[in-house]
Fold ABC transporter, ATP binding protein.
Amino acid sequence: MIHARGLTRRFKVKKESVEAVRGLDLDVERGQLVAFLGPNGAGKSTSLRMLTSLLPPTSGTATVAGHDVVGDPAAVRARIGYVGQKNSAGENFRVRDELVTQGRCYGLGRAEAGRRADEIMELLDLTPLAKRNPGTLSGGQRRRLDIAMGLIHRPELLFLDEPSTGLDPQSRANIWEHVLRLREQHGTTLFLTTHYLEEADTMAERVVIIDHGRIIADGTAEELKSDLAGDRITVVAEDAAGAAVAAEIGSRLGEASLEGTTVRVRMPNATTALPGYLRALDADGVKVTAAETARPTLDDVFLGLTGRSLRESEKETA
Ligand SMILES: Nc1ncnc2c1ncn2[C@@H]1O[C@H](COP(=O)(O)OP(=O)(O)OP(=O)(O)O)[C@@H](O)[C@H]1O
């Protein structure tokens, strides 16, 4: 459904050249749900704009829904939907009329556009809101309308740029419910960017992480976490001397780091390793005041790969 090779985009800013995307290689099969993650300025939107044929690449190629984004952008656009970060519906018409107008823009006849609007409102639970003006909808309802606008022409592939940003947790969950339903009922391929690591972790079957314009990780959330981050044991020793011994013993089990009286050890299978570790500490006379194990998060994956936290990078560049 998506095949990109060496996709690159440079921007000229004054006399400087900014390499927003550097040689993106990506294959997405039909029906996949891919979350595209990365800090601000990593190149997510630029990649999306190239894949949706809105922005020509500086170099490289991409075939999307069977057509070349540069050679045949109209064919690409007819087969994909794109839901950007900004609202796509205006405020002049009622919800149903907005959808019908959008359908007409895609070349549907009046009756067909009406049928399709009704169908899509049903799918996204917008039917009770058909006569409302978009300006009066809640954030979550408005976002569902944006998604409906992107689906009016039955695209095989839907790009969503930050579909749940700015919504409260309940509305976010509701958007996800609808996105998953879309995939289940229609087999739509979904490619979305999100800032919410937990959402990408639990909802997407594949996570692609981009940083400084390059893909640095690609796999299921589980694969990335066990290959690139590992579990973590944290123990707090009673004093610094004990912590130093705990770090030394920990380094035999995995990658140990010491901060004050806290020792963190990264390793596979922390829960089964913990009892043995605590026994070894006890045998060496180290007094432990707290101990816990944690499964890694996608943020740990990013930290392991770049030495930066995704959340910190977000704050720095925000
Ligand atoms: N039209 C443009 N002109 C100049 N530089 C640009 C342009 N568009 C993007 N860039 C630069 O390219 C880099 C990648 O930007 P992009 O918007 O793709 O990142 P992003 O990962 O989508 O970020 P965000 O999460 O903030 O949306 C940034 O350094 C940005 O400043």
Notes: The longest strand covers residues 16-28. The chain has a mean pLDDT of 89.
